[in-house]
Amino acid sequence: MTSEPTDTIAHRRNTDKRFTILCIDDESANLKVLASIFKADYQILISKSAKQGLEKAIQYSPDLILLDVLMPEENGFELIVKLKQHSELSHIPVIFITGLQNVDDEEKGFKLGACDYIQKPFNYSIVRARVHTHLEIIRQRNLLDKFAHFDSLTELPNRRKWENDTEEHWNLAIENTSSIIIGIVDIDCFKLYNDRYGHQQGDIALRKVSSSIKRVLFDYQGKIYRCGGEEFFFFLPPNKDTEIQLILNLCVQSVIDLAILHADSIATNVLSASIGAVQVLPSTTLTIKDTLISADTLLYQVKKSTRNAANFAELNTQGMLINKDGQLIL
Questions:
Q1: Which of 62, 76, 170, 287 is the most exposed place for a label (fewest CB within 10 A)?
Q2: Which domains are delineated in the chain?
Q3: pLDDT tens-place string over residues 7-17
Q4: Rounded Cα–Cα distance for residues 33 and 228 (Å)
């Protein structure tokens, strides 16, 4: 079975209120007991070995792991080291449930990164209460993370999230020697819109515009972030089947199709947007800031001319902008 994409996991989390618990123990009887305790409230995954447990953790990214220490071939202490060293699993809380009674073993478990240590034989109510407590901490942490990384008006990820995600995508592109597209969206004459129709209508318009562009980018595995009042940053992977310019044009057209009246716009009689975007092969000689400056240069060209359009070019390794005809853009 292939691994579930990260976006799919996130979607499952948003639509399914129940947490997922992975139980790892070589004894079938212990797995049945743990499953019986939690299956009414949570989704339960079971594994009878450390190897299988690691595979399931990677595949399903559970919210919590219940881990036995004494297992053949590879014990729980060895497995938690692998879990904590894995970039996509290190955040998952691990509770040891084991027959080891030694204080030194308990101390070792905590030093390796466990969030709790429960000795067998255990009381069902105590185990249930402890697991519930840790899952409540996870729920609150997720809620705080949402507030910290998402814009409350548009419900898009915010500038802080943009900085975190873009750095990750940039480093991955360097590692894979692959290019990415980074761009800026700006709503045309938005101050004039707020002046005429009021900030309440402006907020409504922002939500509609961001949602329409988000839908277009989503179809091409892109993502958009609100990074200013009426300014949005986005990134796209290269597309084999569709020209990037066409995708950007679809974004511009999606805003026009909303048909939001803007009597004071100097671009058109409805709300519109302008885009500047560059395709770049990330390297140690270029930075994300360099790329954004180049995208902003292209955006400025649109804003100074027709607006309601997308300007796209390639940023070469020397930091120079090259248009589709291979000409240098000043």
A1: 287
A2: 6-149 (3.40.50.2300), 159-329 (3.30.70.270)
A3: 444 444 443 44
A4: 52
